[in-house]
What does this fold into?
Amino acid sequence: MFESDSLLRLLPALAAVLAVSACSHVTPVSRGDSDEFATTLPQQPVPPEHNAGAIYQPASSQALFEDFKARRVGDVLTVVLSERTDASKSANTSTSKDSSVDISNPTIAGRPVTRNGVPILDNRLSGSRSFDGSGDSSQSNRLDGSIAVTVAEVLPNGNLVVQGERWLAINQGQEYIRLRGIVRPVDIRADNTVLSTQVADAQLAYGGRGAVADSNRQGWASRFFNSGWWPF
It folds into this structure.
């Protein structure tokens, strides 16, 4: 009886501990699902039995008068995001067409062709059609910030293929920034940064997942009725 009373007194405390642990749960940060933006690790040093030199190491060498800018596979480079785009387009179209055909009743042998005194070959046709169309489109985007990426490949001409992503989990949502492109070593500044406007063949994506992103997305029925498949 004594043990059962002790367990009953401990139940509220256990429930409180479970409630606190549940409230402190944070959505874990997930890694990306695309290999094109995955972090690239540096090259591993050559094993001693296959190493042709004792001092020079291609994977970790550093020249005497060389700075620490990104130049090898796996090196980290910071890309300063400064993206601004503004685009607008307008179109107006107007067409019209009027047509008419008038065929009078013919006269045969000096008499019109009639039936019960009514001309039967007297015809008149007319038609009119018109079309007016107009459209306007404008778009403006802005993205500021920075993202650290890694060198994935060194091209034969010395340019660097960089890629990387950053994930941030806040409450029930996740935000991510992804970047991939080609950087010239001469564009890398002294603090190991480069502007996003100097990244060639840039693939830049910003999006999110979770409850907030799902609530801001149209349902499948709304997407169908607003798509080109809807005939009306």
Notes: The CA atoms of residues 167 and 209 lie 10 Å apart. Strands lie at 76-103, 107-108, 111-112, 114-115, 118-119, 123-154, 160-170, 173-183, 193-195, 200-210.
